[in-house]
Amino acid sequence: MKEVHKVRESYKTERKAGEPSNLRLENKMKLFVVSILCAFLLVSSQNPTNHWTLQPNVLVLEVDGKPGQQPISCLEMPENAVTSDNHNQDIIWKKNGVEEAQRGNWYLVRLVESLGGGNYTCHGPDGMLLNYTEVLIQQNEAKRRRILVKNQQQDYLKCSTQNYNGEFHCSWTWDSKRVGKAAFIKAQRMSDGQNSHCSVEPSRHQWMCSSAQSNFSCSVDDSGSGISCLDWQHCPYAEERRQVQVTVFVRTHQFLLESYSKQFYLSEIVKPDKVRISKVNKTLVEWSYPSSWNTPYSYFPLTFQISQFSRQCRKCENPCTELKHSKASILSSSDVCQFKVKQKIKVVCVRAKDALCDSEWSEWTHIRLKRDEGNRKRKGQQ
């Protein structure tokens, strides 16, 4: 970016130095008239319902499907000279690497429905890159809502956390025909009149969002279909008074921008890791809290569900979900986790959830009990 800035400044200096003073005086009135006409045309031609900057050199245009156009500039000029410099024909524009017919400091992006996005670059007469703008197209809020209701897919983001340390993970599932990637991540705590400032480190695919209420860092998974975030200011022992709001901006190959948001308390998305069954004998099953769960357990108690199965299913990958079990037992404990097993039981399954809120159950952990069936058979033959 520093090199591009130097080239732009050098280009403007050379152009002004090479322009005869008498020509400037003679064309003063002409340029003034052209400036007024260009300003009128540029303002009147702006059709997007809104436009904003996602990050440096990335412009988002919100459209409603109607034809229109939006001006973008190559070289930065004073406000009173925004349009007067457009008479210069030395600036060449390219869209996605293909040279365009338009010339000058200003370029009109033509919008037809959701088309018009792309990589726009401007160059000097020698082909030197002067500046670039990536234009992304986003449907306006009203149209996005109609599409979401029509498709009945209002909850794209699925978020969960293993504990109350402030970390959480959100994922989304793309249709097999759609291709896109996360273009920007925004995470903050909800509060009145507060807005967070987010910055990105492209080389590390990490985002930092800070405000008076929170300080988040987020990174994109290697698969590109999920993010992991951490609220550095969150205290697990304090009451969670404000919800987390996560917004994922997804960019498609057609330069379309889609945004998906979700709001939640950590207590609403907490899902403990699987419990660890550490000791088994003929009459007793013992397990322990997940290593990732918060301590002390007396302050963060878990409720456990225990299911017993009287037959084996050696071909089952997960007998806890594939076998039919009797009525499950519920146990709450912050100390020793033990359960007495019936004599004929072959498989025992255990899972956990937060005892103090209506959270999601963890995945099942199971143990297959080994009974001394051979000895019993030999005794019966004697």
UniProtKB/TrEMBL annotation:
It is found in: Secreted. The keyword Cell membrane does not apply. Keywords: Cytokine, Disulfide bond, Glycoprotein, Immunoglobulin domain, Secreted, Signal. Pfam families: IL12p40_C. The keyword Secreted applies. GO terms for cellular component: extracellular space. PROSITE patterns: IG_LIKE. One of its GO terms (molecular function) is cytokine activity. InterPro entries: FN3_sf (IPR036116), Ig-like_dom (IPR007110), Ig-like_fold (IPR013783), IL-12 (IPR050676), IL-12_beta (IPR015528), IL-12_beta_cen-dom (IPR019482). Residues 56-122 form the Ig-like domain. Its main location: secreted. Heterodimer with IL12A; disulfide-linked. The heterodimer is known as interleukin IL-12. Belongs to the IL-12B family. This is Interleukin-12 subunit beta. It comes from Poecilia mexicana. The gene is IL12B.
